[in-house]
User: Which sequence fits this backbone?
């Protein structure tokens, strides 16, 4: 058998998991109807409510990766012909347009330059009465944070559209307050700031969005109407209260449960502060070396830094050298910036002074 | 923190994982574009080809549970109005009808009594020119094995319909020869006889089925046209050859890779023989105690035994006592047999003389 490599995952995700999350994966497996698992699932949903900043009953980990969370968000809420306004400032906004269109939406894309945050006024002005306004909180492709609180206020002022938000790269890393900001439908991933392996999509939907849902969506697997019983919606307790829908990925749920426990033990605001400090230290260090940050000043994510590849430097060669010499993974850019930008993530347990120090030292070596 | 319980998972799935699979889960996490992970994914797909009995290029682990495999099978192959004949002899045949209908199929359900295998002649006679004929190889709800080789021959004789097969509870436990039997589209789960935690759906599709696929299916997440690049279809090697589609659940893939390695080291036919021996020993032991098996003689799955609850016995109380006294999980019946049948699985590492001995001794105690 080949040697087992141990990487420092400083790319745009997955990150290295919290040790508690790894222990949760390897814990003796439970059946999905075991009363111990049922209690663990209930507690996991409670913990997810805390990191989402929501009281939504329908808050649960979907049994697939974050991209399936996006699909669940649209497939359950887009009725044929609905107007969906999508704020696009990167790859994941583009993907929202594609997924919404496949669900039968009339998509109105509001394009912004990559590297800049969305403009709430432009988004709201794009259509007088959309059914849904959709946006990405933290664009993984560009390292940009958008102001969802401002967007939520603008959407509410303009009418009664539902607000649908991608929180894949924000949840557990920066401030996220779904209820305060008016998020009706939110999806995320486990493999970024939550510090858990990829494989689940934390999801939340408000009562008002659920009331407008598609009754029999094209997807059976992601049908929120059927999934309610699966997690014991409305306070049902004990295995007797569960409807079998599909076999829950129990090892992944156990890992998420443990990872969230670690975050809440540290304190959610303390975790945000740790991400903020690590990101700032990295960005300061890069600029001190004469490197140019890509994301607009004032809208930079601490957990995901984008930096321009210096002129004359081979982007892929640097990434390869970091991997081979230091077991460090960083990401290429996305889309047209694939070879001109690097993406460097400091997420979950990697949001630490040690990660910043190691990464800057390794870059100093590799960039010569 | 509450004590960690360790269960013997003798229900209809999940089963206890092979130790190699658990070790694979806890292995240091890899990024989904890491060359080490890419090589592991390629090898996983190769190993899946062996357990499926197929040479199909498009053989891969989908990033969700077995039920999503069912959805992927239909969403990629059902064009609106297509006639889909479904052999129904249990819960999962019923579910196929629902999922196919949501994809726009005209469903022709061919009902069989629960506990009996499907009748290939009746299935083929149900419609003169279906686009797809669908069937469950091993019905998890009833413990019945159907003869897919005979169905495949009948379907080929009758026309050019595609054969779509659910192998969730058969793969890695009993004979399965996708290519020899004419299976065009197959999906499975990891948490049964493959002895891996739930969370992935091993999937295979033939070239001829892929050529007839839906070009832009309603599901983006499960779109096989997009997923080809994700696994390096057609022999592309190295990270440079991969198209980013979604973040692969790398811990689960690592676990599946290791579990499959264990099975192939033992030898696939030896693994089938081990399941056959354990199931026979259990079924003999149950009958020797005067208990009545539910599935029809000649069509009983060794990996999943269904047995009638004796008159006057409280089904749930027995299951609870097994769990509380022995940490043993067995399953209730499905559908109308929920309280009159038990489902007992001996899958993956649990297909062993030790499991049979423990289970029979515990039943002797609990049944008094």
Assistant:
């Amino acid at each position: 058998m080949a040697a087992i490599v141990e990487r420092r995952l400083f790319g745009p995700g997955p990150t290295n998991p919290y040790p508690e999350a790894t222990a949760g994966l390897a814990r003796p497996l439970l059946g999905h109807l075991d009363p111990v698992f049922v209690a663990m699932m209930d507690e996991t949903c409670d913990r997810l409510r805390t990191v989402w900043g929501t009281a939504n009953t329908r808050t649960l980990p979907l049994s697939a990766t974050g991209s399936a969370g996006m699909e669940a968000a649209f497939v359950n809420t887009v009725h044929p012909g609905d107007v969906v306004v999508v704020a696009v400032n990167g790859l994941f906004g583009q993907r929202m347009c594609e997924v919404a269109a496949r669900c039968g939406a009339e998509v109105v894309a509001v394009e912004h330059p990559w590297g800049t945050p969305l403009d709430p006024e432009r988004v709201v002005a794009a259509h007088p009465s959309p059914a849904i306004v959709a946006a990405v909180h933290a664009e993984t492709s560009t390292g940009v944070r958008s102001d969802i609180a401002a967007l939520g206020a603008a959407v509410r002022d303009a009418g009664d559209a539902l607000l649908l938000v991608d929180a894949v790269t924000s949840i557990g890393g920066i401030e996220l307050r779904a209820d305060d900001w008016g998020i009706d439908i939110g999806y995320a991933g486990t493999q970024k700031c939550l510090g858990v392996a990829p494989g689940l999509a934390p999801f939340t939907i408000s009562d008002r969005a659920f009331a407008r849902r598609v009754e029999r969506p094209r997807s059976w697997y992601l049908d929120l109407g059927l999934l309610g019983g699966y997690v014991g919606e409305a306070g049902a307790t004990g295995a007797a209260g569960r409807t079998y829908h599909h076999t829950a990925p129990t090892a992944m749920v156990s890992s998420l449960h443990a990872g969230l426990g670690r975050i809440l033990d540290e304190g959610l605001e303390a975790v945000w502060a740790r991400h903020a400090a690590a990101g700032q230290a990295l960005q300061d260090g890069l600029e001190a070396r004469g490197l140019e940050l890509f994301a607009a000043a004032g809208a930079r994510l601490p957990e995901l830094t984008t930096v321009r590849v210096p002129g004359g430097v081979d982007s892929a060669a640097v990434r390869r050298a970091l991997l081979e010499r230091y077991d460090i993974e960083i990401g290429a850019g996305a889309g047209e910036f694939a070879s001109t930008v690097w993406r460097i993530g400091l997420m979950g347990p990697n949001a630490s002074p040690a990660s910043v120090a190691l990464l800057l030292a390794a870059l100093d070596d590799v960039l010569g």
Remarks:
- Residues 88 and 94 of chain B are 6 Å apart (CA to CA).
- Chain B touches chain A through 60 residues (CB under 8 Å).
